[in-house]
Sequence to fold (373 residues):
Amino acid sequence: MRSWQEVAFCRRCGVRLTSGGIAGYCTDCARELVAHIKKVMPAETARVTPVRPRRASESRRAGGLLYTTRERCPVCGNTFDATRVAMSRLRVEAREPDFYVRYSPLDPNQYQVWVCPTCGYASPQGAFSPLLPDERERAAAAGLRLREQGESLLQDLLPIPCGAPGAEPSGPGAESRAGAADSAREGAEEEYGGEQPVGRRPAGGTGDGLERPLSAGGAGDGLERPLPEVVSDYARALYFARFRRRPHGIAAGLYLRLAWVHRARGDAEADRRLSALALEEYLKAYEGEDGLPGNMDEHTAAYLIGVLCMRNGRLQEAVRYLGQVVNARTAVEPAVRKMAQDQWYELQQLWQQRQGQPRDAAADMGERRPRGR
Fold:
């Protein structure tokens, strides 16, 4: 039985792959990308010396938990050392309904974003792939603007300043974002009785002259990166996501992973605020024209939205989205359906607490009982 994480989708258009695809892309997207690469690569290859991949024994560090690979920036064509986490060497401590997995001895989400040291382009590892010509042009212009105006452009993307847990938000758009997150948090506290349910920077900097080494003396024997640097990387990736196709899907994943980073460090306030922003972006991707991220199908997205609605106290919306999964008549990944059914019954208990009535909450919610239970 395959889990939802193993379903193959095109990394570019999100179409489900029936035969494995071509390097993670459907046939049409692969054909377009190959044509684009043939068009732009000859001029670049004349200036860039081919890079031989390092041997594993040379690139591994930190006790084998981290290793580097040579990656090419899809914007400027520069190659650089990107850090990856050896997931097979991590131990799973816990799993939570919103797909958060707690690992030890380090949190891999703090290494999830790669930043090009030449042009400053940033993207999550899963989306650090060749861009379409219009995407590349917009990203290059955005990177130039970011280098000229500085990181003040990033201040309105997050509800909290870098590395200051629980601090007040700053920036021109941060006040409205923090207000939305605070209202969601207040609703959640009312529903839950005041309780909540439960890339390493490449060597050479980011084009701004800053180098970001690993912190010493942190959790995991120096493997925990300083929080301001992690937040800065995510803010850069959120900034460049605006100029990509399906920007809401990319931003939603970044907000959620950054919420997990704060959750792993015990900052519940930042976790709630960022989860609320992730929910808004997932709703825009699910209901809008952008479409879902390439690694997520409709039922998985509905389940995750329902769970995030529960975490933010929006129970009516949680009923709607979880109900779409538990009562779906089309094929649903068994693992996703099972998780949705578990959350459905927890939602019933929360609904009973809101209504103050001991009777079956499914009738009050106006939804059928989930099949198979």
Notes: Strands lie at 60-61, 66-72, 79-85, 91-95, 101-104, 113-115, 122-124. The longest strand covers residues 66-72. The chain has a mean pLDDT of 74.
